[in-house]
Design a protein that fits this description.
The protein is about 50% helix and about 10% strand. It starts with 5 loop residues before the first strand and ends with a helix. With about 240 residues, it is α/β, with parallel strands linked by helices. It contains 11 helices and 5 strands, in the order βαβαβαβαβααααααα. Helix 1 (about 15-25) links the parallel strand 1 and strand 2. It folds into 2 domains: about 5-130, Rossmann fold; about 140-220, Arc Repressor Mutant, subunit A. A 5-stranded parallel sheet has the order 2-1-3-4-5.
């Protein structure tokens, strides 16, 4: 018996899908997979969440409320890490990761080896971001080591409003100020002013460094700087 086991809970109402996932992990002795036969994350019994390390669900079977639902579950079960499976476009993947608090995303057709690696990484408290998403932001994320450091007691991120978080997420997804304003229903000048205020509060010197700081905080907070295990992820 392996010294450390990763306990996985698949939340999905498709028995065939569960069997497919279980089959991909059949040779992994250190991974135990359970199944909650429901598509609604909030319908999963508390004891099933309490005895899991990693929760997996298929984003393609959820609507736009997925990020909010994952966030609510995580607020109740702080130890859980979420591995989202799906086939979304780049910006949608980024939005799900940044808005939900999920720390991992994989294509539905990924190999069993990659799935096992992602589960182990998340179970140990790490992050698993798709290589094509990570590559898009690598240069920005590497800027973090040059940004000003703040202690937990002075962490500006905990003070951000819901609107400020939304602006940062949309900005990280490549949206212009005009596009951000259209999405959140405010004038472009308000978006510009908000971004300048965020730069001042975080110590970021420009828009790219603010994005870098935000990506690090949302995706890699608590892991080692500078590039963490990004290179290992890219190798997979």
């Amino acid at each position: 018996m392996p010294a450390s086991l990763a306990r996985v809970l698949l939340v999905d109402d498709d028995a065939q899908f569960f069997e497919e996932v279980k089959s991909r992990l059949r040779t992994e002795r250190d991974i135990i997979i359970g199944w909650s036969r429901t598509r609604a994350l909030e319908d999963v019994p508390d004891d099933e969440y309490a005895h899991a390390d990693v929760v997996m669900t298929d984003s393609d079977k959820h609507g736009p409320e997925l990020a909010d639902t994952v966030s609510r579950v995580k607020s109740r079960f702080h130890h859980l890490q979420f591995l989202i499976l799906g086939s979304a476009e780049d910006d949608t993947v980024t939005m799900i990761l940044l808005e939900s608090g999920a720390r991992g995303y994989l294509d539905l057709q990924t190999s069993g080896e990659n799935l096992a690696s992602a589960i182990r990484r998340l179970a140990s408290g790490g992050t698993w971001v798709p290589p094509h998403i990570l590559a898009r932001y690598m240069d920005l994320i590497q800027m973090v080591e040059f940004l000003p450091k703040t202690g937990a007691e002075n962490d500006p991120w905990a003070q951000f409003t819901a609107r400020e978080q939304r602006v940062l997420t949309l900005m990280a997804c490549g949206r212009s100020n005009k596009e951000i304003g259209r999405v959140i229903g405010v004038d472009e000048t308000i978006v510009s002013s908000t971004i300048h205020q965020l730069m001042h509060r975080t110590g970021a010197v420009n828009r790219p460094s603010l994005i870098a700081y935000y990506l690090y905080h949302k995706l890699f907070r608590g892991e080692s700087l500078p590039a963490m295990d990004a290179e290992k992820v890219l190798e997979n």
